[in-house]
Structures are given as C-alpha cells and as structure tokens.
Design brief:
About 40% of the residues lie in helices and about 15% in strands. The longest helix has 27 residues, at about 275-300. A hairpin with a 4-residue loop joins β3 (about 75-80) and β4 (about 85). The strands form three sheets. Strands 1, 2, 7, 8, 9, 10, 11, 12, 13 and 14 form a ten-stranded mixed β-sheet that branches. By secondary structure, it is α/β, with parallel strands linked by helices.
C-alpha cells in the first residue's frame, strides 16, 4: 500500500467519497443520509470530484436532510446558516464559455482558409484525413466546454468557513496536477508537505479546492491555484482510500463506479453506444478500485473497512444519467445510495466484548 507516514490517526470514522459527476453526488448524498441515521461518528472525510462537493458540505455542517430538501426546489434553505440560496441547475453549472467558443470559431475559419489554399499540393492524398488532422489539431482555444464558477460561488455562500482547519470534521480534497501526472494534490487543514506521489497543501480556500477536484478534463476548465493547474482528482487515483485508512481504524468507502452484470439475461450492447461506453469506463474505474481494495484488505487485517457500492445487477441505477437535474432521477439516486449504505452497514460484524476478568 502507498503509505503516508506523516499522517496521524485519530478516533472516529473516516469517510471516503469517490467521484461520479452529478450521479455520484446524489448517490453519496443518500449514503450520507444513511450514515447520519445510523449515528456514525464521522471525524474525517476524504472527497474527490463529486465526493469532494458533498464532503465539503458535510464537513461544513450542512446535513444530508438539508441537501435532500433541495431536490426539485427552486430555493434551498439552510437552517445551519439561516439563509436561502439558489441551488445548482443545468443552466448555471453548464454555462458555456462563449468567448472561448468565439476564438475557436475564428481560428477554425483561418485554418479552413489555409486548407483550401493548400488544395493544389494535396492532389493524390487523402483529403478527408488531411481535413480531420487539421480540424483536431486546431482545437486549442477551447480549454473546457463549461465554466464551473457557479459551483465555487455556491460553496462560498453555503459553507460557514473557507478554512479547512476550522471545520469540526477534518476534510481532505484531492485533485490531479495537470502538468505533473506523478503527484496527487491533497488540500487540507492539517498537513503541508511533499513526497514523490503526494503534495499536501494547506491555506487553500475550500471552494477553490473543490472546484479543482471536480474539474473533469474537457468538460470544465482546469483550475489554477498558485503556479499550477489542477483537474479532477479521480484522474491520478480512483478514490483516495489510502488517506482514510491511514488516519482512522474504521473506514467507510463509497463509490458509484459499478459495471452492470446481466448474468446472461441480455447484453449492454442492446442499450446503445452511450451505455457501451459507460460500461467500459465503469469497468476501468472498478478494476482500479478492486485492485486497491484487495491490497488494503491484505495489509490491514485488523482494520474495519466498509465498502459501499451499487448493486452490480441494478439496471435502473446503471442507466441513470450522469448529469441529470431531473428531481425523479436525483431522488432515485439518493434512494440507491441509502440502500447500498444500509446493506453495507448491516453486514458489518460487531466483535463481542471480551469478558471482564473476575
């Protein structure tokens, strides 16, 4: 296991939340509600991408019940802060970066004119291939399709503090360096150090760190913090369970990357190309998770590690869209997360107390 000896263990439970876009957010919200109902003593949260968003809200004292009340609502009331806020919508989260599109359009026109002028030299060559190569090579003005600043603004309003160190629950937010694939960034309020695979940083605003952690490459622009650009934390390492395992003896790990197992009753191929692509992506992420799951279990035999994941035969969950703001989809995902957490907690074996010596 990738050991991080600088991290200290503390009492309570560490909760590790993976990514998964909007689908992952509402799934983790259901997990969080089940854990709250079960009275779990969460003392640390390690969040990546969607897990960083829900983790930051939970660490900031925003309850799962409060967040669930926003489903289908035009306004979200936070009793913890006594404020009304506008929740995220598809319009605010997926706001196109129009000035980049405009620059790309003019760049395309310029490249097209050059291509047409070069026709005499292309006689006898594959014109379609030449056109595609130039079109793809010309995509330098659009850094990301959408501007995620609305997420950062919402967290600035909802969170009681932007200082990691001021949370009652320790929060660790992971991101990937865009220009250094060998290191993972871990924004937090306790540790500031660097080794070959990790760079732990303090004094970074929580909202900025979360925005960096959830910057899906190609979808959202990379986020600049200091001298570096950061993207989605799942790129470098799917889940960051190694942090949770290091800082607690009881660790709950939740992820939504579950490929569909049809058990001979059909094929994902029949569900269309998007679901074939989804199955492939889920399989890649799940295999990465499963490899580390086996390692964590072998190297930590005395540690309580609880894994929460979707039912592999649940076609309804698999088909749920990744980026939906429809209330019925969000409610479905919350229920699936609650069910998965309740099932995982029910299978935990409680060791009987040793008899008191007479």
């Amino acid at each position: 296991m990738r050991d991080i000896p600088q991290l200290n263990k503390k009492k309570g439970t560490a909760l590790v939340l993976g990514g998964g876009a909007i689908k992952g957010f509402y799934y983790h919200l259901g997990v969080l509600k089940a854990l709250e109902d079960a009275g779990e003593d969460i003392t640390a949260i390690v969040g990546t991408s969607a897990g960083a968003i829900i983790g930051a809200l939970a660490a900031g004292g925003i309850s799962a019940s409060t967040l669930m009340s926003s489903v289908g609502a035009k306004k979200l009331y936070s009793p913890e802060r006594d404020i009304w806020v506008q929740p995220l919508t598809s319009v605010t989260l997926f706001k196109p970066i129009y000035h980049n599109y405009l620059r790309q359009y003019f760049s395309f026109l310029q490249e097209s004119a050059k291509f047409i002028a070069s026709f005499p030299r292309l006689i006898g060559r594959d014109i379609v291939n030449e056109a595609l190569d130039r079109l793809i090579g010309n995509q330098t003005e659009i850094i990301g399709l959408f501007d995620p600043s609305a997420l950062e603004k919402l967290l600035n309003v909802l969170l009681p503090t932007q200082n990691f160190a001021e949370n009652n629950i320790d929060l660790y937010v992971t991101a990937s360096f865009l220009d250094n694939p060998h290191q993972r960034a871990v924004f937090n309020g306790n540790y500031h150090f660097e080794d070959a695979e990790n760079h732990f940083l303090t004094n970074i605003p929580i909202s900025r760190a979360v925005r960096a952690s959830s910057a899906i490459p190609g979808v959202f622009e990379p986020v600049k913090i200091g001298d570096h650009y950061y993207v989605d934390g799942e790129i470098k390492q799917t889940l960051s369970a190694d942090i949770g395992i290091r800082i607690a003896d009881r660790v709950i790990i939740s992820h939504s990357y579950q490929p569909l197992h049809l058990n001979g009753t059909g094929s994902v191929r029949e569900m269309g190309w998007l679901n074939v692509l989804k199955q492939g992506i889920y399989t890649v992420f799940y295999e990465r998770i499963n490899t580390w799951r086996n390692i964590y279990g072998q190297q930590n035999p005395g540690k309580a590690i609880i894994w929460i994941e979707p039912d592999p035969t649940d076609t309804e969950f698999f088909l749920a869209p990744e980026f939906s703001f429809r209330p019925e989809v969000q409610q479905l995902l919350i229920e699936k997360g609650m069910q998965a957490a309740q099932k995982a907690l029910a299978t935990v074996t409680v060791k009987p107390l040793a008899p008191i010596p007479q």
